[in-house]
Automatic annotation (TrEMBL):
Domain Acetyl-CoA hydrolase/transferase N-terminal intervals: 43-222
GO biological process: acetate metabolic process
Source domain of life: Eukaryota
Designated name of the protein: Acetyl-CoA hydrolase
One Pfam family linked to the record: AcetylCoA_hydro
GO CC terms of this entry: mitochondrion
Family (UniProt): Belongs to the acetyl-CoA hydrolase/transferase family.
Lineage: Eukaryota, Metazoa, Ecdysozoa, Nematoda, Chromadorea
UniProt cross-references to Gene3D superfamilies, sorted A to Z: 4-hydroxybutyrate coenzyme like domains, Acetyl-CoA hydrolase/transferase C-terminal domain, Glutaconate Coenzyme A-transferase
Residue span(s) of domain Acetyl-CoA hydrolase/transferase C-terminal: 308-462
InterPro entries per UniProt: AcetylCoA_hyd_C, AcetylCoA_hyd_C_sf, ActCoA_hydro, ActCoA_hydro_N, NagB/RpiA_transferase-like
Provenance organism: Bursaphelenchus okinawaensis
Gene Ontology MF, one: acetate CoA-transferase activity
Length: 474
């Protein structure tokens, strides 16, 4: 007897599939061998990874969902049996994993990441691991188009419901496209992984090797402390740039949380974002966020992944008002641009006086990744209703007292958002609106929101760079 779907897939367009190639799997449909429902082979983690051979490409469920048990078992298997030239692909690798703890593992496994984390940052900058610069909206397509193969996918799934449907939990992102193109799926069932909805559903019949109970919980991220400068940035953005009924994109950390903490009197806000964290929960519970005025996915908050505390994951678990989509949908520039009053809030490492935004490097050293900044910067700025806002928010100085507004970007640094992308730059000293402004006017506005002690020096350096003193055009 064939099993019918126990739910309606609320948004078929959430699949984000944009390639012509046919995927190997339809994850939200049970898999049959003839008329017989396929059942996974239940094994221990150390036995599951024995299917991995030299030269294999492995997709890793990542960020909070990093499959620590499988990674640790793989490291032991590779070293014990001299299995080499294994490549893993993922975004953030988190938790107590072998890449962070065992320098010898890089002789056997080479991670390729689209976003570096402390686990692999040193290895990337030493040439032992690789960084892939890519717009987040395109990261799923590298699997759909088979540009990056998936011989094996390591997943960390939520427990199945009574009909055998698990979910990718808090990491749908590029994990959904990777899983549907995987030749073999190895999964752990993790009781701490929230059950989520949208494009994150996967029927257990698609799992080839199943570890019935993960030993390691998914990773939690504590709330960031909000300092006075960040609180002021939050106030400036909330009072001046976020309208009632706005659709929000923001991430994790003290500045996004500061913005959210200042939105308590706003009305009918919506969420369409690549990621979100604890800061949104209070607004959701109070009804400030209700997603009622969105142009798509009305009544639902949409995200690709989430990171936060256990309390945040408990809020997500079984919450049908939250949909998880692959990044091909959440970060699609057209989807973003057709959202109601789309307001994107992102951050940066440094911004030069022409408006170039550096977000993934410190000088030549890879620090993080492109993420979805450009997707939302461009989509928000080009919102079809003319009411979108694209915001870069930074403190004027680093914790060491170094200006983040600089005359030139550091040697070797990579630009994520170009000077033509930047609309608003917000620091604790004000809002710089630089769209359509000349170099001299841009420099004037950016210096105006820099730290007061840095302004005279920046004016002199602007003169040296542009041949004239910064000034307003209008």
């Amino acid at each position: 007897m064939r099993l019918s779907l126990p739910f309606r897939v609320q948004n078929r367009h959430l699949s984000g599939l944009r390639a012509h190639e046919k995927p190997l799997r339809q994850l939200a449909k049970p898999r049959y061998n003839g008329s017989v429902l396929v059942e996974p082979q239940k094994v221990k983690a150390e036995d599951a990874v024995k299917t991995v051979k030299s030269g294999d490409w492995i997709y890793l469920h990542h960020a909070a969902s990093t499959p620590i048990d499988l990674l640790n078992a793989l490291a032991k298997h590779a070293k014990r049996n001299n299995i080499k030239n294994i490549t893993t692909t993922s975004a953030l690798i988190m938790g107590n994993n072998p890449f962070a703890n065992d320098p010898e593992i890089y002789d056997y496994i080479r991670p390729k990441v689209i976003f570096t984390s402390p686990s692999v940052r040193k290895a990337v900058n030493q040439g032992k691991a690789d960084y892939i610069p890519i717009f987040l909206n395109e990261s799923g397509r590298i699997y759909d188009t088979k540009r990056v193969p998936v011989d094996v996918a390591f997943l960390n799934l939520s427990p199945p419901d009574e009909n055998g449907f698990c979910s990718l939990g808090v990491n749908c992102d590029m994990s959904s496209p990777a899983a549907r193109n995987a030749k073999i799926i190895i999964a752990t069932i993790n009781k701490t992984q929230p059950q989520t909805f949208g494009d994150s559903k996967i029927h257990i019949s698609h799992v080839d090797y199943l570890v019935p109970e993960a030993e390691t919980p998914i990773s939690c991220v504590p709330k960031a402390a909000i300092k006075s400068a960040e609180e002021e940035i939050g106030r400036l953005i909330a009072e001046n740039l976020v309208e009632d009924e706005a659709t929000l994109q923001l991430g994790i950390g003290s500045i996004p949380d500061a913005v959210l903490s200042k939105l308590t009197t706003h009305k009918n806000l919506g969420v369409h974002t690549e990621m979100v964290s604890d800061g949104i929960v209070d607004l959701w519970r109070k009804g400030v966020v209700n997603n009622s005025k969105k142009t798509r996915d009305v009544g639902k908050g949409v995200m690709a992944f989430a990171m936060g505390t256990k309390e945040f994951y408990d809020f997500i678990d079984g919450n049908e008002d939250i949909l998880f989509g692959s990044v091909g949908y959440t970060n699609d520039v057209d989807v973003i641009a057709t959202s109601h009053k789309m307001t994107g809030i992102n951050s940066a490492i440094e911004v030069d006086l022409a408006g170039q935004v550096v977000s993934d490097t410190i000088g030549k050293s890879i620090y993080s990744g492109f993420g979805g900044q450009v997707d939302f910067v461009y989509g928000s700025a080009n919102c079809k209703d003319g009411k979108g806002k694209s915001i870069i928010a930074i403190t004027a100085r680093t914790e060491k007292g170094v200006s983040k507004i600089v005359p030139y970007i550091k040697k070797g640094a990579g630009v994520v958002s170009t000077r033509a992308h930047l609309r608003y730059l917000v620091t604790e000293y004000g809002i710089a609106d630089i769209w359509g402004r000349s170099n001299l006017h841009r420099a004037y506005e950016l210096i105006r929101v820099s730290h007061p002690e840095d302004r005279e020096r920046l004016e002199k350096e602007a003169f040296e760079r542009f041949g004239a003193m910064p000034r307003r055009d209008i």
